[in-house]
């Protein structure tokens, strides 16, 4: 079974307008809300790709109820811990650029965390656990790493998509896959990455420290896939960008969906690029038909 974990889900409130003027009243042309949070997006895309999974994490209040009800209405299985405070609302402002304001989110106390850990007891050999998104400041930075340790003896494979220390602390537990974007890779090493070759050098450093596979996503440029042995680049297909929120999460779901079917990490990488771009080309997350259509066009080249 696949489990996703979202510590800090959200309602993603997207507003579209031609331009935004700070310090003034702006009026949107169009707005909509969707459930959000990285693990939840991964669950939704897996579900679209007909891959069963269970969404774990923490929700609270009327906003949390919206998230849970929406997922259930789409046929997803959830097993959340309920918090007293409201789930956050993240604002996505779409003009010619995409600007995001992600809220800090509700606190999680020790009791909530214990309740969550009990839910992890059901994981077993062969399961995948996806730890995705920001972990609230009220929790220790090694929370993801501690979760991995609890699951390690059961042979659960972990996929991690987060930033900075929360990510680097997971390396000692040998995550199966990491999915930083270029900006996140830069901030892990506190450097500016010039080109693909340099990105590969830094991805390899994460491999040396324990990661098994890494996808470095580069928005409209495409993505790199780096393992111990090889590095590949895949260019993103051309299309009209509608909303890239969740494109990275779609890559994680796409990779896993194809890897489970084929055990071929390169096919899985190509499928992940197709899924990321299919989401970028639609307002909501990608559908299976959209991914399959783009998959036919994806090529890659070996870098070394
Ligand atoms: N403008 C675009 N055109 C084509 N493909 C795109 C575009 N933007 C994103 N993608 C696809 O989506 C993948 C992931 O994009 P990106 O690097 O923006 O992820 P991310 O920053 O993790 O996104 P998020 O955090 O919103 O999920 C890219 O590797 C690419 O395949
Ligand atoms: O604040 P975090 O947890 O880093 O990111 C949260 C978030 O931006 O990630 C998803 C897109 O990847 C959105 O649905 C959501 O709003």
Automatic annotation (TrEMBL):
PROSITE patterns, A to Z: PFKB_KINASES_2
An annotated GO BP: lactose metabolic process
Segments forming domain Carbohydrate kinase PfkB: 7-286
Record keywords, A-Z: ATP-binding, Kinase, Lactose metabolism, Nucleotide-binding, Transferase
EC number: 2.7.1.144
Domain of life the protein comes from: Bacteria
Pathway: Carbohydrate metabolism; D-tagatose 6-phosphate degradation; D-glyceraldehyde 3-phosphate and glycerone phosphate from D-tagatose 6-phosphate: step 1/2
Catalysed reactions, as listed in the record: beta-D-fructose 1-phosphate + ATP = beta-D-fructose 1,6-bisphosphate + ADP + H(+); D-tagatofuranose 6-phosphate + ATP = D-tagatofuranose 1,6-bisphosphate + ADP + H(+)
Gene3D superfamilies per UniProt: 3.40.1190.20
Xref: NCBIfam families: 1-PFK (TIGR03168), pfkB (TIGR03828)
Protein family according to the UniProt entry: Belongs to the carbohydrate kinase PfkB family. LacC subfamily.
Protein name: Tagatose-6-phosphate kinase
Lineage of source species: Bacteria, Bacillati, Bacillota, Tissierellia, Tissierellales
């Amino acid at each position: 079974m696949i489990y996703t974990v979202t510590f800090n889900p959200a309602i993603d409130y997207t507003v579209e307008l031609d331009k935004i003027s700070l310090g003034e009243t702006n009026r949107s042309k169009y707005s909509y809300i969707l459930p959000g949070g990285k693990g939840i997006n991964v669950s939704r895309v897996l579900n679209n790709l007909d891959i069963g999974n269970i969404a774990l994490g923490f929700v609270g209040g009327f906003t949390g109820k919206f998230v849970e009800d929406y997922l259930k209405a789409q046929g997803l299985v959830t097993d959340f811990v309920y918090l007293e405070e409201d789930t956050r609302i993240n604002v996505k402002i779409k003009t010619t650029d995409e600007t995001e304001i992600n809220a800090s989110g509700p606190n999680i106390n020790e009791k909530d965390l214990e309740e969550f850990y009990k839910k992890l007891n059901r994981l077993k050999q062969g399961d995948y656990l996806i730890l995705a998104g920001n972990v609230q400041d009220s929790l220790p930075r090694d929370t993801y790493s501690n979760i991995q340790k609890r699951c390690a003896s059961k042979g659960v494979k972990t996929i991690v998509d987060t930033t900075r220390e929360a990510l680097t602390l997971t390396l000692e537990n040998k995550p199966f896959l990491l999915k930083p974007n270029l900006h996140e890779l830069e901030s892990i090493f506190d450097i500016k990455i010039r080109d693909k070759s340099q990105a590969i050098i830094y991805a390899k450093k994460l491999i040396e420290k324990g990661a098994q596979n890494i996808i470095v996503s580069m928005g409209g440029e495409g993505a790199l896939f780096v393992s111990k042995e090889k590095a590949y680049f895949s260019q993103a297909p051309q299309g009209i960008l509608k909303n890239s929120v969740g494109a990275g999460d779609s890559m994680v779901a796409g990779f896993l969906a194809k890897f489970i079917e084929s055990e071929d990490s390169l096919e899985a990488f190509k499928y992940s690029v197709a899924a990321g771009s299919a989401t970028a080309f639609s307002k909501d997350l990608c559908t299976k038909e959209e991914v399959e259509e783009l998959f036919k066009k994806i090529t890659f080249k070996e870098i070394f």
